[in-house]
Structures are given as structure tokens and as C-alpha cells.
Amino acid sequence: MISLFRFKDFLYSSDKIFFAKRMLVRVSLRCLKLADTLTFGKAGRFSTMASMERNHNFFFRQLFDLESSTYTYLLGDTTNKEAVLIDPVYEHAERDANLIKELGFKLVYAMNTHMHADHITGTGKLKSLLPGTKSVIGKGSGALADIYLKDGDVVRFGSHQLWAAATPGHTNGCFTYISHEQCMAFTGDALLIRGCGRTDFQEGSSETLYKSVHDRIFTLPDHFTLYPAHDYKGLTSTSVGEEKKYNPRLTKPIEEFVKIMDSLNLPYPKKIDESIPANKVCGVF
């Protein structure tokens, strides 16, 4: 892949222009291939996506917690067997650890998109089940972890990497993890499918959230697939283009968005009094 900083150096001769165009076509075809690997269960319901593109040794699986409607994501390099787990849930730590062992992966990082209020993270428990695992979270989260991310940091596993983009607003420590190679991003609670995270507790700010989504997520290419931390209607993923067109909140001007968020009148989160203290110490309590 040609870096953005070097790409302009290829635009000054006809043979290099041809090379650059060929590279862009390859990238576009790679992203199109990703859509062909989805598998469906009964009634067309998405079940798993085991590998986004085996030729590029990238493994991906989406897992689910029924109680909190939380998605957990396992990403791995099938060549050197390094893997990362995004937003694990405490009650499913054994499930996730067993799956990782069965697949022959070594979990290098257990990551959170933010400090959750609706469930206890499984990162601390996974560290004991899979020695050598390191916990990862945004520096502004207020939670304990082995590694604190700053905006622009890169998390590497095998030959793959996730770019950490700060997307505060739901909480101060929210991050979106972006794979440019695989044309996908993990948005946490910042951007949900046809929705977004609430902003009425935990340092929430509607104005900040709006700017985070529009500046850091909606600026990604429209075909990028987005995977949220939760969904409550049985949907599994969306895209940048879909949310820019159909999101009922974030398609509005910022002033209207703030009014919408201020009038939601959502109930107090059921597990927040249990989850926040536990998540401050990596789910080990």
C-alpha cells in the first residue's frame, strides 16, 4: 500500500500514473470482496463472519451478549496468530478465551472503545485466563489499563493494524478503531446503527459527540463498514454512507441534534452503579 505522504511522488510520469491507478483499483476491489463473505443463519439473520479476506490473512468474528446487547469483536492474523478482542463482556470471558484457544490465536490486546456503563468489561478476567494479554483503553477514560491510547495511536497485531481515533462525546475516553486495509471501523457508542450513544451522564456532551462523528467517522469513505458496541434491534453493522443518509439524529444540524438529545428522557442505566466502579479497575473487582 502506498502511503499518503509518498503517493504524490508517483504522479509525475506516465508509467507511475499507471501504477498508481492500478493500486487504487486493487484497493477498491479488496473492499468490494469484503461484502461477499457474510454468512447468514435462519431468516437471513447474520450469524458470523469468520474471515474478511483469507488471502490477506485477516480473521474477523462478531460475538454478542444478550443481556446488554453488546457486540464483542475478535480480529486476528491467521499467519502469525496474533489477535485482539474489542469490548469483551465479563460474563463471556470464558467463552471468548475458549474460542481464542480453539482457533489457535494468541490474544495480545483486550481493548475497550470506552468505559462502559451497561456491563462489566471482560478485559481483566481475560488477562488471567490468557496470560500475556494486555488491556487497552483511551487515556481519558479514567479506567485502569496496561496501555492508554492517545488520538492517532496505532494498535498492531500481526501484519494488521487499527488506527485509534478519539471520538469523545458519549464519554471523554471514547475511541473509534479503524482498519483502513479492511475498510471497517469499530465505533463503540459514539455512533450506533441509526442512532448514537446517550450524552446525559459520564461526561456526556451532545455538541462534542456531534463533532466527533462528523469529523472522525463521517469523513471516512462511504463504503466503510461500521460495527457499533451495541444494537437493540437485531442489526449487526452499517456503513458510513448509510448513516450519513439515514441516521435520524446525526443527519440534522447540530442545534437540532442537541435538542433531540436533550429531550430523550432515557431511564437511568440499570447496571451503571455496578459497572462503573468495576470498569475503573479493568473489570477486576
What is the topological layout?
Layout lengths: L3 H4 L6 H21 L16 E3 L4 E8 L4 E8 L4 E5 L6 H10 L3 E6 L11 H7 L4 E5 L8 E3 L4 E4 L2 E7 L8 E5 L4 E5 L17 H12 L7 E4 L9 E2 H7 L7 H9 L9 H8 L6
Parallel strand pairs: 4-5, 5-6, 6-7, 11-12
Antiparallel strand pairs: 1-2, 2-3, 3-4, 8-9, 9-10, 10-11, 12-13
Question: Would you write up a description of this structure?
Answer:
- It catalyses: S-sulfanylglutathione + O2 + H2O = sulfite + glutathione + 2 H(+).
- Residues 69-230 form the Metallo-beta-lactamase domain.
- Its EC number is 1.13.11.18.
- Its cofactor is Fe(2+).
- This protein is α/β, with parallel strands linked by helices.
- The chain contains eight helices and 13 strands.
- The strands form two sheets. It has a seven-stranded mixed β-sheet. The protein has a six-stranded mixed β-sheet with strand order 8-9-10-11-12-13.
- Helix 5 (206-217) links the parallel strand 11 (184-188) and strand 12 (225-228).
- Helix 3 (93-102) crosses helix 4 (123-129) and helix 5 crosses helix 7 (254-262).
- It starts with a helix and ends in a 6-residue tail after the last helix.
